[in-house]
Design brief:
heterodimer, A: 362 residues, 7-stranded mixed beta sheet, 4-stranded antiparallel beta sheet, 13 strands, 21% strand, B: 312 residues, mainly alpha, MetI-like fold, 13 helices, 78% helix
């Protein structure tokens, strides 16, 4: 780790983190030019910790997760930075090294359970395939483990359902199969890329409950990639807010929800539908569109959409601790901390709005 | 499975009924058959005699019934050449079957190999070489390619016999006589099939379940063999069924002619030239049967490859 790198904060009271990502950059060569999908992302995940990565579509959150597994590798992609998992550097790892880690050390659950299972194999065989890719066990032993896993994630009559094909399952059940499969080799880290986005709300709650139980039972770290702040509030210990390839804010769940520092986070919080909201009002939304990753704006990426932007925003702010009394919170915003407290209040809650009367930067 | 077979047989019966009726009506519409059979300088009395002999004065459905009855009782004599068509087909069909199935297996195996290699090395040298080879294969007409093979490998080097078909009773001779025809016919299909498979594999490689397979920690080879390739074989199998059906109906006539195999293709060609009604009918029935049977085989293969398809 170099001296000037934005070294992630060590989480309080724990030993070495399970995963340390430092200065991760991912770019893809496209016909229109170089796309920098991830632009210097650093964070840590401790054992047993649930870290949520939130942001809009195109913020680089999924690319970050997939890069950790080496799933974004290809002739057109370039990587910088490091990601150290349990002593192994992932970004520069050989394919053979990665294959040993994938599914065993780090397992992944994807967004769309409808298409993430191979339609031509029985679900039991798909789970067994993963177990036998990593452990020298007999087919029967692996089958027993598959049944155990499926029971654990709440699939009824697991022994019979083992012989079903994916198309014979509902979406929620398929996602349970995906989770059972991901957990079959007792991974230390689970990457869940929008695991509940394609599911009904009731099923969402059940799947989150399963993930919570698993964290308690196995002590695995979880990275939850999502754009759903409701899900985040439900399960996360720490939150990383990404915007246009960069981490703009990082903090504990309480930091993010009750003391957010970055105007983008205010905008996200302000756009949550509230059951007590005045229904005659339009749902607040962040004005404008996320910038094209091909032509990212200079300085802070959020500047073109930020009503509080001022001269200094032409420079990129570092991701650092800006509130002396809150060591868990880091952000990339030039606004003085005192002004933020005032600017983020819209009506009686947090939101993103034009500055009312007083100018910024006092 | 049994229900599937019964339903297929039922369907086959109606397909054949429709095909034979349509063919029979079309052939009947080609003109006065009696006059044609009687020849150029026939008298009215001669034509009348022939009309009575073959029953051309009877209602068309009676004629159809009699023709079909003759065919299915093995009494199908050609009006023109008075040979028994059934005997003739029995004699010619082994050559066509050997050619079609042999070539079918060869081109299926080689195109799976070529298509997979081209997809794995997409954009690189292997892919480009295979693309050119495929294009060349598709572009060679069988009469040209066959002639080249015969001249160099048969005549000049004397590795293979020049023409004819030897029955399976002499397996080595059978094989030697068929190697060049198989090669000629296969090359035509390998180019096309390997291109289709290449693009299907590349499409499937972007599917979510392939990403899942990688995320499970499988090697690239395992992902390809177990997941990408198996899903990509489905369109190839349906193409194969259609093409085999055609070939069994005598569509390999060019290859059959170049190598003097005397298969059903040649028989069909001659029958159509002479408007030999009985021979045409027999071959049409045979083709329809081949297509129906092969599509049933393809459906079974489908269900084996893809469990979402149910045989019922």
């Amino acid at each position: 780790m170099s001296a000037e790198s934005t070294a992630p904060l060590p989480a309080a009271g724990t030993t070495a983190p399970l995963l340390t990502v430092d200065g991760l950059k991912v770019s893809f060569a496209t016909e229109d030019g170089l796309v920098r999908a991830v632009d210097g992302v650093s964070f840590t995940v401790d054992p047993g910790e649930v870290v949520a990565i939130v942001g809009e579509s195109g913020s680089g959150k999924s690319v970050t997760a997939m890069t950790l597994m080496g799933l974004t590798r290809g002739p057109n992609s370039e990587f910088e930075g490091t990601a150290t998992f349990d002593g192994t550097e992932l970004i520069g790892a050989s394919n053979a090294q990665l294959q040993r880690i994938r599914g065993a050390g780090i397992a992944m659950v994807f967004q769309d359970p409808m298409s993430s299972l191979d339609p031509v194999y029985r679900v039991g065989d798909q789970i067994v395939e993963q177990i036998r890719a990593h452990e020298k066990v007999s087919k029967a032993q692996a089958m027993d483990r598959a049944v155990e896993m499926m029971e654990r994630v709440g699939i009824p009559r697991a022994k019979e359902r083992l012989r079903s094909y994916p198309h014979e399952f509902s979406g929620g059940m398929r996602q349970r199969v995906m989770i059972a499969m991901a957990l079959s080799c007792s991974p230390k880290l689970l990457l869940a890329d929008e695991p509940t986005t394609a599911l009904d709300v009731t099923i969402q709650a059940q799947i989150l409950e399963e993930m919570r139980t698993l964290r308690q039972d196995t002590g695995a770290g979880i990275i939850l990639v999502t754009h759903d702040l409701g899900v985040v509030a439900d399960i996360a210990d720490r939150v990383i807010v990404m915007y246009s390839g960069r981490v703009v804010e990082e903090g504990t769940l309480d930091d993010i929800f009750y003391n957010p520092q970055h105007p983008y986070t205010w905008g996200l919080l302000g756009s949550i539908t509230r059951i007590d909201a005045d229904r005659s009002q339009r749902l607040p939304a962040i004005a404008g569109m996320p910038p094209s990753v091909l032509r990212a704006p200079k300085g802070c990426h959020f500047r073109p959409r930020c009503p509080h932007a001022f001269d200094k925003c032409g420079e990129v702010p570092e991701l650092e601790q800006r509130q002396p009394d809150v060591p868990t919170s880091r952000d990339r915003c030039w606004l003085p901390v005192a002004d933020k407290k005032r600017l983020r209040v819209v009506g009686d809650q947090i939101g993103l709005a034009k500055p009312a009367q007083e100018p910024v930067g006092a | 499975m049994i229900r599937f077979i019964i339903r297929r047989l039922f369907a086959a019966f109606f397909v054949m009924l429709a095909v034979t009726i349509i063919t029979f009506l079309l052939l009947g519409a080609t003109g006065n058959q009696a006059a044609r059979l009687a020849g150029r300088n026939a008298t009215t009395a001669q034509i009348h005699l022939i009309t009575l002999k073959y029953g051309f004065n009877k209602p068309i459905w009676v004629q159809y019934y009699k023709t079909m009855k003759n065919i299915f009782t093995g009494q199908a004599y050609s009006y023109q050449q008075s040979f028994n068509v059934i005997t003739e087909v029995k004699h010619d069909y082994p050559a066509t079957l050997s050619l079609a199935f042999g070539a079918g297996i060869i081109w299926l195996l080689i195109s799976v190999l070529f298509g997979t290699l081209a997809a794995v090395y997409a954009g690189r040298l292997t892919d480009r070489v295979l693309t050119i080879v495929s294009m060349a294969g598709v572009s060679f007409p069988p009469f040209f390619l066959g002639a080249i093979f015969l001249y160099y490998l048969g005549y000049k080097l004397n590795w293979f016999p020049l023409s004819g078909y030897v029955s399976l009773n002499h397996p080595w001779q059978w094989f030697k006589h068929l190697v060049l025809p198989w090669a000629t016919l296969s090359i035509l299909f390998i180019g096309f099939y390997s291109r289709v498979l290449r693009s299907t594999i590349l499409d499937n490689a972007n599917e979510d379940y392939v990403r899942t397979a990688h995320a499970k920690g499988l090697t690239d080879g395992q992902v390809l063999r177990r997941h990408t390739l198996r899903n990509s074989m489905i369109p190839i199998i349906s193409l194969w069924g259609l093409d085999m059906g055609q070939l069994l109906g005598g569509a390999a006539i060019l290859t059959e002619t170049v190598f003097g195999l005397q298969g059903v293709g040649e028989l069909a060609y001659n029958a159509i030239q002479n408007l030999d009604v009985i021979t045409i009918m027999v071959i049409v029935i045979l083709t329809a049967l081949a297509v129906v049977l092969l599509s049933a085989v393809v459906d079974i293969l489908y269900a084996l490859l893809d469990p979402r398809i149910r045989l019922a």
